[in-house]
Structures are given as structure tokens and as C-alpha cells.
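Q: Start with the shorter request: fold the first protein.
A: Done. Sequence, then structure:
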Amino acid sequence: MPELPEVETVRRGLTPVLEGARLTHVRINRPDLRFPFPERFVERLEGARVERIDRRAKYLLAPLSTGETWITHLGMTGRFTLDGRQLGEFEEPAPIAGKHEHFSACAERDGRTRIGFADARRFGFMGLIPTAEVETHPWFADLGPEPLGDGFSGAHLAEAFAGKKQTIKVSLLDQRIVAGLGNIYVCEALFRARISPLVAAGAVSRPRLERLATQVRAVLDDAIAAGGSTLRDFANAEGGQGYFQHRFDVYGREGQPCRGEGCTGVVRRIVQGGRSTFYCPSCQRR
């Protein structure tokens, strides 16, 4: 499933096309994705101007001139595609992504760019929420701070983890503690901070949590700079793939030598909370 860096990469790819643009030629090709499209979805988007493209956790948010916010979750295989070829005034935009394209529209500003949304497995979804109610909506009300925002720090982790016996790996995946972190980047951040994924969250000292918070930010920044990670389905809005998977220190490297300086350990894989955890038992201490 695309994680925060992948969603942020898509956001940055869509911004130059959608920000300030008016939506026209809106079409849906089926009644639902993971959930049904909102009632009168096409009519509510048609003619609206996109104020900007935001991201909250793994959601894309587009506040509209109508007072509503268009929400998209990519799910496992959802992807946006862009076609910048000039379209005639009455020309029908053709699908870019074949039979799995379920939504399309044109963004009109200086020219007209066709936008498509394809989702082969249909675990993604779209919604329309009054902009004033986004923060209190059930999708967002319980989310923790953004890991790249001012509210995320070692102090926040210390408060959230106080007395917590659950392992730090599983705790970091709790979206109520920090929003948007996923399995890949938690594994990578714990390795960089040299913290074992098996340690109880409440047993990690404040200095180590400060280091962890710094490494969470660093690994996310590095991944965003590399365009995210492509393991199977992810592609950015221009159709390109991410490259951070070539720089993984532990994720997917079971049985391979640890990349830690001076470490002779071997990367191990275990399962925690139903998810694969990759770590080095030699240099990631409890």
C-alpha cells in the first residue's frame, strides 16, 4: 500500500495541474470503489475550482471553491494519471489507464489537462466533505500529528508511549499516535535509530525517542526526495516509479548483511501485528 512518501509524491505531481484549475468533463465509470462514490459526485465536482492540494496522513485533500473538500485515498493500487495533450472544445477525453480507470476529469487553467484515476483492486475511495467539517470527520478526527509537522517530536512520543507495553514497532503504526507512518518506513526509521522493534514502547528512553523522531523525519524526507518506493503498483502522477526501494537498509533484505557501520549482523524478518518486520538483531538494541 502506498505510504506517506508515495502519497506526498502524488500530491506534488498533481499540484501544478490542479491548483487553481476548474474541473470539467467529470466522469465516473462505475458506482463505487471501496465505497460508493458520494451522491451526485459528478455534479458536485463539475465546474468547481480546486483551491490547492493538501495531504493528511495517507489522504489527498483538495479544498474546492464550492465549500467542499474532495478526498482521495489511493488504497493499494490507486494511481492518478495525467495527459497534457491539448483537447478540442468538444473532444471526448479518452481513457489513459484502460479498463481499470474509474474516474476522470479535465483540469482547466491555462490549458486543459486530463486527469484519470485507476484502481485495479478498488481498495481506494473518494469522498466529498464540507471543508469546515474535515477535521472532525471520522476519517480524520482521531489521527495523530503529521510526522513531518511541528507536532511530532520525541516529547510527543514519550507522552504517547508512557506505560505502553506494546512493542514500539506496532505502536508506531497506530495512526492515533502518528499519522501516515507505514510498515516500510517504520522499519527503516527504527534501524536508523538503532532501536529494536521488539522493545516495549514505554521502555524506550527519552533521548532514544528524540533520536527516533529525528530519524523518522529523515527517512521520510529521503524517500520523498527519491519519489517514494515502488514495490509493485505505485506510480506517480506522471507515470514514473519511485526509487527509494533501492536504498532500503533493512526492508525486504532478509538474510542479507547489515548495512550498519561496523556491524557484522544479518537482517532478520519476523511478523508483528500481522506485518513483516525487518531488522538487525545485532545493532538494533532493546
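Q: Next, the second protein, separately.
A: Sequence, then structure:
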Amino acid sequence: MPPIVVNRSTMQVVDGMHRVRAASLRGEQRIEGWFVEGAAEDVFVLAVELNAKHGLPLSRKDRNAAARRIIESHPHWSDRRIASVTGLSPGAVGALRGAVDVPVAHLSLRVGRDGRVRPLNSASGRIAASQVIAEFPTASLREIASRAGVALATARDVRNRMRMGLDPVPPKLRAAEEDCAPAAAPGPADPGAAPVPDQSGVSFENVLARMRRDPSLRMSQTGRALLRLLGSHQLPDEKWRELVAGVPAHRAVDVAHAAQLCADRWLKFAAEVRVRRAQSEEAAPEAGGLRRLSPGA
């Protein structure tokens, strides 16, 4: 029989309860097993995954319950990744995600089964690809994909849609982009529009000032580096407009692409910080990722 799996911190059997019971009925005193360590929710994911591979098949109700729990603990995981663990279809996981209320359920980035981080909506990449095509009509698909940061298939589809006079962003993606986009305050071009209130109630300047007063950030090297990075974005609107006006026309696409990549990195950073906070509040003190240890008996 394969070794059982045990959570070292709690000595709870993660996988192999029936094997333990069978060994006990045979009068055996020892059984081969593997110890693992990690956050409680990571151990739960492992238990569901192992059971789906060789254990007693879970009922549909149990799989739905497991998927809901994983969505709550790992909201940054893609539907396909959660589906591969629970044995559900990606569509079923997506339907369950809409019914689960978690603070970071609407992240713009998701981590797939291969560990790669991808945007939830590819509209921005398609828009960037259309701008590259407009500026460099003779560029190859590979060059378009590289400059816009999209896949070759996406670059090809965008070029084909533009040749047919269609919007480079399909209607479904355009609708999703509008649904996910936050309300923006009126710019200089629309001075008569009513201002949109700050939904958070706290400005960036106030948040940064509060962080700068925190000794846990000011007294550590990492904290000071983070404050410097955040402080570099504390520019008045006039300065941002000067930066925009100073971008040469032949470098507009590259600058926009670089800015988008920086924004994506900050979004990923924000998602990981929120997930880490949620896990630290619920997980065991030694949480920090699942770790397989030496075998034990």
C-alpha cells in the first residue's frame, strides 16, 4: 500500500484514513507514511488532490464544498487550477466563484495550473497589440506579440480583426473590461462632470503617510525600500501630465508597454500581500507553503 500522508504539526492524517484503519484491524503497530508541513488551507488542497487521484471518489456535493473552500483560501488561483484539484469542470468552478464572497475575488491576475500569472481580462493586451500594428503595419506577428506582451495567437487575431474593420477587442472581452473597470474621476476634458467620490474613503497620500509613521516599516531595510518605491508614485497631476507630454511619439508604444508591465507587477504584489494576510490570520504559525519532509512511521 502507498504510504499515508500526515500533517506533522497536528499529526492529522491527510491521506490514508482507510489504510490506517485496515492496519489497525490487522493488529499492526506501525505504518509507513510521509510528513508534510504547511498552512492549514494548503494541507486541505493536498488532501483533496490526493483523494481525487486514488482515494474514494468524492460526491458532487463534497467536490463543490471543497471548491468553495479553495476559492476562499486561494482566490488568486485560476478556475482551471482549482478544477484540476477538485475534479470539477472549469465552468463549474467559475459558477461557484461568483457565489463566494471574498475580499480579493476580483483580482485582475490569476495563477494557472502551470504556475504562470495571467491577466483575468486580456483586453489591455489586445489594445496594446492594435497600437503596435497601427504604428508598425509591416511588423511580424512575433514582433507584435513581443512589443504588446501577448501571445502569437492573440496578435494574429487582433491583426485579422483590424483588417476586417472590427474592434480588436471582442464584445465579450470589452463588456468584461467595462464591468471590472473602476469608476474614474472626470479629467480636464470634462470639467463640468460631477466628481466621483472616493469609494475607499482614504487617499493614497494619507495611506502612505500612515505607513511612513509605522516603525516596523521605517526600521527595516525591506520596509524602507517599499516606502521609497511607493513614494516615487506620489506625484501631482501636473507632473504626470508633463511626463506624458515628454514621451516621444516613436516611443509611445514602448513607454505604454513598460508602464503596463509595472502596473501588472504591482497588481500581482497587491494580490500576494492580501492573500498572505488572509492566510496569516487563519493558518498555523508555521504556515508558509506546503513542504514535504522526511518519511516517518
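Q: Describe the second briefly.
A: The chain is about 55% helix and 10% strand. The chain has a mean pLDDT of 76.
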